[in-house]
Amino acid sequence: MVEPPFQPYCYSLRPVQGAKPVQKKLLSDMKYHTIYEMIFDNEDVLERCRNAYTIDDRLPFKMRVAVDLGYKFLSNYPTLFGWDCETITTGLSPDSQTDTIDSIATWGEKQSERAFFYNKGKPKETILEFIEHFKSIDPDVPTDFNGRFYDYPVLIQNCNRFGIKCDIGRNGGIPYVLKNEFEKRGKGQTEHTIMLNGRVPFDIDKETRNDYVLTIAGLKNRGLKEVARHFKLNPIEVDYSKMQELSYSELEAYNLSDARCTYELGQIYFRGLYELAEYLNIPVDAIITRSPSHIGNIVLGRSFNQMGIVADGANKFRFP
Length: 320
What we know:
The chain is of the alpha/beta class. The chain has helices spanning about 45-50, 60-70, 125-135, 150-160, 205-210, 210-215, 225-230, 250-280, 285-290, 295-305, 315-320; strands at about 10, 20-25, 30-40, 55, 80-90, 100-105, 115-120, 140-145, 175-185, 185-195, 200-205, 310. The chain is elongated and about 75 Å long.
């Protein structure tokens, strides 16, 4: 058990039994008001106590700690490990819920981390060998390209189909997909976050989609091959319609090329994120799984704390 640095809390605009009256500036009028600090045993209780008069009540506790204190502890630079799988599709386009894994390649800094797994017609053996290799490398940041939407879901689906325990997390953890549905510019959007005990899955696709440098460079599709070409990583490219005709050596070279490009792109993008995490005093997973608002929440929240300001309402209500 680890004791938190403080308990979850929020404020109420009206008096609450047991709550502590405090003087704070409200962002809506920048004037001092007496509001009431409510402290809870855990986040679940806080959520149950939300009402029309509570404010600062929707910031996740992990983010609250980042804003109020930061996570000031030391660790070694995380180890990255690239991986990529090739599959046999059942339809005209890839489908993570039905496709079968054909081969898997991995790439890392050491020669021992670079491997190719392929047993023609025996996906179960291929996956078992990959899982054992993955656990032996024990990476902090397993890196993929669009893995949150395909590689991890197809791996999970294949493991379930063949009765394999996908225990690639630390302490035997199994990956699962955290789905988030939201609206963006009036359209429904879905985001996936891969949760894996003791590790931080890093999907480079999430970074390249939002990289304005690539926009200036004119990259439109931003798939692995296009981005790798932009960074002069010399990826091997194959006509997808002829994938099943590749020889063993051709498939190995192609799959390893994808894993190598994934690893090298991961190194490029991770460096900036790591420095940002250090600057903000937050864990690496908090910067990799961030939403667009998280960095602003931390920077502004810390400034608000210094000035005794409490944000009483979301921007969309204050500034319609």
